[in-house]
Batch of 3 targets.
Target 1
Amino acid sequence: MWRCLVGLMVFASACVAESGVVDPAIPKVVRGAATTIEGAPFFASLYFANEPGSPSGHQSATFATDLPDCGGAIYSHGAIVTAAHCVEDVANLVRASAAWGAEAESSRTDQRRVTTEQDLMRVVVGSDRSSRSNLPDSAQEPTIAPDGILVHPCWGSEPTKFGRAAFDIAVIRLSSSLRWTPEVQPIALVAQSEQALVFPGRTADIVGFGDTAPDGSVDEELPEVPSKLQRATVRMQSAVTVDTAVREESAIVAVGDRGEDACVGDSGGPLFSGNGSDATLLGLVSDSPVASTIDCGGPGLYASVLLGAEWIQRAAVAKPGAAAETCWEATRGGRHR
């Protein structure tokens, strides 16, 4: 089960095991095999800082580890799609810092630093290496736009209505445009006409960094966090069969029935059909069923991109400062329809 936290006071970010021990290197893809970034050029890695950088640039952000905390998928030159639970605390902290700074400016009694998204996290694309200090020449590290994190308005608003993992979707907007190369390409969002791709019994793929042990322990055949990107094939299941807490099956994709699945720490990573630049994004790694007795190894719950596709498209091009949509608007075509 995911539990990604960003500490408001210490600016720390990590994925936390059920024991409560902070461990950003918890394993991710179960029973995966090493792959290359050319096979999944849309994959993005998210790294969270434990000490923020300064707005002036005189102090760079520092990171507790060299390893990614979450995954994501490239949607366009200027937008990355990931899980809401990966980045919502970052967005909340930035908003709180902005309000704090505005209060200081109005009172003129204090010079308070304002924290930005770029102070708290980094996005890397074009790399099939987990280590941020050992990136290949193909890697790109774009700058995150101010107020660039948009969380789906239905996320967490009515969990009893939709079920766990529903609308666990966020868009990270970039202020520096990605360059398309063989290692960096966007992924298409699944369309309504492609609903059959997520029917029970169909297969899809997941990618991420991490160990392959189904119980979340270290696989003796691999280091704790493999240096190369891992890929596994998983089988679709009925979400309501996998998790009785699911209320809106169209909002959730359940996968994994052969001990192959994503795991704690791989949140936000893509569930996709196809390969390379011809792939289609079906879902985002989100959570485990309520009654799950193991941390990893399937089945798992993924936020359905099919139900969130129109909101993703709007969020990726929304103007800075634009009024946020309500959950009702987000599921009915936006504010102006």
Target 2
Amino acid sequence: MRERRRNAAAFGGAPDNITLFDESSGAASIGCLMASPLAAGLFQRAILSGGHPEMVRPPAQAQALADGVAAALGVPATAEAFRDKTSEELIAVQGAGYGIDLRDEQGVEPFGGILPYTPVTGDDVLPEHPLAAIRNGAGSEIALIVGTNREEFNLTTVPNDAIDALDNNKAVATLSAIRPNAAEILALYGVNQPGTTAGQALTQAQTDLTFRLPARRVGAAHQGRTHFYEFGWRSPVLGGRLGACHGLILPFMFNTLSLDTGPDRKGARTRHKSLACSPGLDRLRHHRGSGLARIRPRPPVDVAGHPQHHSPRRRAVGQRRALRSHPGIESRLDVGLNYRCPFTNRQ
């Protein structure tokens, strides 16, 4: 960051007007930079898409990960031993990290079992948990946009057909590896209800637990200007089952949907502008006074999955009435409606 500030003017930029944007684990890294005292004052705006600064580990879990990878390498878990190995040797054993129990003292794996390698708290870079630091005012001078896609976890369970293959026992076992009270959580997502399969319930729960709820917590904790979005355009890939999955927002953000060369070649068949402006896909809108913005292809749903056609404020009232509390899981209320800091004024 310091190097970028020094060279910003040479590339036509302003060193005191820097925006950081990234998606997924990159967004988590930017969230950590917001919380780090070493990065204070180095950037003025942050956009976190599909990732958040809760994707970190305390030292104990980081040590367990280092021990496991070191064992796979056959070396002590020391920095010197790792440095002596080639990149090829390290890459060959990186899969060992996926077999290690990385749950914290509450039984939560903050990355949802997706990725074992994350930033670590408790040093000079992150002296405290990033969410706690942000809640205490770290990064308050930074204007923040944070958001998620509506069906983030579809990318994990749809392409490999896990969403269809999981039965109730397998869904509970899968969620138990990263969360306590897995059976109770899945029940809240309709796992035993007609029309909802175990795979669908797990996928929806993981979208909320790993992406949507933590992103909302960061937005609620941030003491500066905050804007939240939700992206809901559903991909037609895999018969439309992929939905508004993780990463799908990127070609819209960079205006590159027409360059799609995948097997479905949706970009080659349909101009990306017509897709982006097709009926039902609203442009990014800000609900004044609420701090909530959405890109959505369909009416929002309440906690029971029923379409709602009301105004944002009336919809929030209906959601609050329908909420069900459960130990260990947050209410599925869109708390973006309570944000206090609109992101409409550009500087």
Target 3
Amino acid sequence: MKKLLLVVVALMAQALCFGQGGAVVTFTGRDVDGHYVRPDSIVVENLTQQWTETMYWPDTVLTLNVGTGIGNMTMAGGIRVSPNPFDGTAQVEVPVSEAGEVQVQVTDMLGRVCAQYGGRLPAGTHLFRVSLEHPQVYVLTVWTARQRQSAKLENAGCGARDGIVYAGMADNEPMLKLTPAQPFQLGDEMRYSGYAGPQRSQTVTRHQSADETVQLVFIQDGSPCPGSPTVTDIDGNVYNTVHIGDQCWMRENLRVTRYENGDMIPNYGYSSVFPCRYAPNNDVNQVHVYGYLYNWPAAMGGASSSNAVPSGVRGICPDGWHLPSQEEWIVFWHYMDAQSRYACYIDELHYFAKSMSSTVGWDATSYPCSPGNDQSLNNASGFNAYPAGYCYNGTPMAFGYNTYFWTATENNFFGLVCGRPDPVWVIHEDPTSGYSVRCVKD
């Protein structure tokens, strides 16, 4: 019976060793020119299990264990174990307040000594590498001349034979591993976003089923979109692009006169059914800067209303681009509102209309934080919205005072007004009205 019990225990341990599933994701960062960028933080989202964790430098390795972890590290009495749980081998940091003899010992839950170290160490933080053969819970204990400290070790895998190796002093912050205390299954849809100072990386989304190195590409807001610094419409008009957050926008208002199939967009009348376009301020000489104003049928190009992300409505936009939905504008709004570098403060409240407005063309106003006040401070984001005004009953008006942009969502548009510090939303709007159009890359 005793022999049978030992065999069962051995088989269970072997199952733990070989049955551990998961994925190890290592992150690195670069800019669009291929230069290294150190991520200050990385937001990890499991879209399948609906949880979010944030890694902070120097953490660059994400360990996703099938099942549920218990945290990225264990800290007890100043001892730091990372990762914890671990897969056979862990790094242990031990602070020593003064030079002297130091004893480090690992015991299992029955009190049996599995590994130990003894030696004289100087004051400072010291690194040890602990290797444990069997998957179970252990206790690590450190004795110095003045104190005794302990920490729990969770070995989830199978290492080499039990042992402790002194690895030197922690002169630099070591690379840590994040093991989220969250559920994970192979194939879960994961999303990764990196942050480095004011820069945010492009979002990486994948179904994580294996070990992988993920390269986060950091793009400065206001820069041309990688791979698409310009876009050309059917008329041959060339538009600059701008990367803001996770979105790639046209940096200029649309000024096309035809759909991609060659059909003309009439430049007269007004209608809630038929497409129309208008020159801002009734002056065709302004079109090259301010773009045309279009009614909603023109902007949509016969497509149905959409509030999806992305909208899926190409409408009047060039191939590979689309008319943004209300939800896509809300994504833009939330991103801009969350960036302190785009904020203009009135007392304790912050606003961002100036940061997306052009530096010229607005009617002057004394209202603080509005596009018309001290225009030289506008356009921190590079969005470069010009005050093209709008068209009502076929008549352009409010040139220099405001600008509005159609969405792909019925009766809904986004806009800026020279004397308002924040953008405006308008709903239940007349589709015969003429507004500007900005397209977003698919």
